[in-house]
Give the backbone structure.
Amino acid sequence: MVDNKVNSILFAGVGGQGILRASDIICEAIMEAGMDVKKSEVHGMAQRGGCVTSHVRYGKKVYSPLAETGAIQTLVSFEKMEALRYLKFLRKDAAIIVNTEEIYPPAVNMGDAPYPIDVIAFLKEHYSKVIHFNAGELAQKAGNIKTANVVLLGAVSNMMSIDQSVWENVIKKSFPEKLVKINLAAFQMGIAA
Amino acid sequence: MKKELMSGNEAIARGVYEAGVRFAAAYPGTPSTEIMEEFAKYDDVYAEWAPNEKVAVEVAIGAALGGARALAVMKHVGVNVAADPIFTVSYTGIEGALVIISADDPSMHSSQNEQDNRNYAKFAKIPMLEPADPQEAKDYVSLAFQISEQFDTPVFLRSTTRVSHSKSVVTLSEPQMHEDKTTLKHNAGKYVMVPINARTRRVEVEKRQMALKKFAETFPENKMEINDPEVGIITAGMPYNYAKDVFPNYSYLKLGMIYPLPEKLIRHFASKVKKIYVVEELDPYLEEQIKAMGIPVTGKDIFPYTNEFDPGVIKNAINSDLQGAVSPYKESLAQRPPNLCPGCPHRGLFYALKKSKAYVHGDIGCYTLSYMKPLEGLHSCICMGASIGMAHGMSKALKEKGKGKVVGVIGDSTFLHSGITSLLNMAYNNSDALIIILDNSTTAMTGMQEHPGTGYTLMGKEAKKVNLNVLVSALGIQNIRVIDPNNLKETKNAINEELASSGPSVIIAQKPCALFKRANIKPQPPLKVDADKCEGCKSCLGLNCPPISWKEGVTKVGSKRKGISFIDETLCNGCGLCAQVCKFGAIS
């Protein structure tokens, strides 16, 4: 039996997209909201342009920092095709948040493999809750393209019952002062997306 | 007390500080590296990067013989390098305290093998603790130092990638006051391991083993949870969490100390439950010892030997009738293998090396990534430092057949780690192989750690910087060239000439890592492909540089081209390598 009391979020994308920073922020917010939280990721080789994933699990008491395959409730994909790579980890009723930006893997760059088409349509066909937007564009609107990860966090926050004030506190603590305003704006962009 | 979200490695560093320990030595290696980086940030500590793990352990032993509480940190394969002193310090014991952290890597996320270092505890007769999460990782450090002091023994603390690199809520403790117990005390009978003394100490080791076995029986971190009496799980470390996640109602014996094992406690647990599973990643380490006690358990009959577990692995092994999760997406997806960064100085070197058609022995570093298509720059990689000895051995065995065809490549950090003696051997035994030192001025793969060639210490102090050229020369190598690997013509010429020359040669390819901030590399403007000049020959794609891609269908009147290359300006570092490769002058 899947333990329904523990929530699992899978962050996925490509090295350099700020995935680990985003999952750190969400953990801090969960902790500040008074829940137990664990997360797991792998450093090292993945930093060199490879796939990066981070599991975040929270609830009253969490044992495993890794979710069971097929038990994840929310997938946050920082890149469009990466969403397809992790569907096996999701529950059938999972929610999916997808950044529609594309980053080509080497084989696609070389012309040796296609970039999958109709990703969003495929996801919508199989999952009832699919939220998609171009996080890079929204980040740019917020003032800095590098805040795309915080835009995505804003979108995830809609699915969690954590007070707005907690998120704002944690974002303030997570960035140098001069970047706080832009990141708060990016977070709001994600909420509205 | 204060609560913080911490990784296992951050928590270990905190634990070391909380235990009042102020002395540590290590060599970086994933997943252990951050332990030292974090520890070095605390006040009044001494932390150093040693050139390799053996030296790190010897430094820590020396400190411990002087009465200090000392720590040595390494990844699992680092323990192999350090095994020689470790096996004998087990005999001598120490004056102060000595804890050795081994960070294992089940699933080989960043390693060349997934050896199970729990075996080292049994092999070297050294007690071992294994925490299951960051909280325990912090708390067990203190316990490890206590055991070391109480039993006059080195103690292993074993982490794994999932403990070191997962984060969870850690309750901090008030740091113990550091007490300086260092002193010079002679005790040659205990510390000079000539046979007559070693035989005496050998007996002491067995006495200590007996005392530790007794200690393990009541060690509070060997915890029994009796719930459902039908099924009991014996486990240790992170797999405990995976099992609890899917089987919260089973009974558990969670071992915090995995060597030596508490036999009476295990028998007691076995008497309380009907069926026992031993849940452990990698080797049947616990299983074999428990079976040897005559207790029937189920282990590797149903659980995998290879790779790390997750909750699903355990659930599916116990309930074999369950169907595994499946993805609705059935097409194959292009992989994203890790790649050399834009502007990486290794790219030019391996591009040139491929043209020489030599057999290239490699070792551990970012450059190992060059083995993949299209660079295909490496043909062997066994362990740190191995490339020099292997190139020499192959060259000697092949004699004339190998002339001008055998190369060893090694990084600056790995050369200083374990390449110096093998290069000395090449000079001594008059090798014909060519060695290329890829000097990018840092330990790049693990995240820019200092080493004796960088001019700085872990504590950020300026240090004596070894001159590689002088060092290589002192080892007896006469043919030495220093080149810029981003100059393709110079690089190709140097490789061809040194392959043709007889006797051992060394090329030092010198260019700082493109991500290395201190190198202060001036940003170059990104390059562009001139769509009129590009003939679509794909030569530049052979560099496997992340910003360079191929656009099918962009044709040109009077040309047979089927598409053109394209450079992503946001990724390009402006190194100019592709412009040197382009035969049509289309990139500038």
Observations:
- Residues 223-318 of chain B form a domain with the Rossmann fold fold (CATH 3.40.50.920).
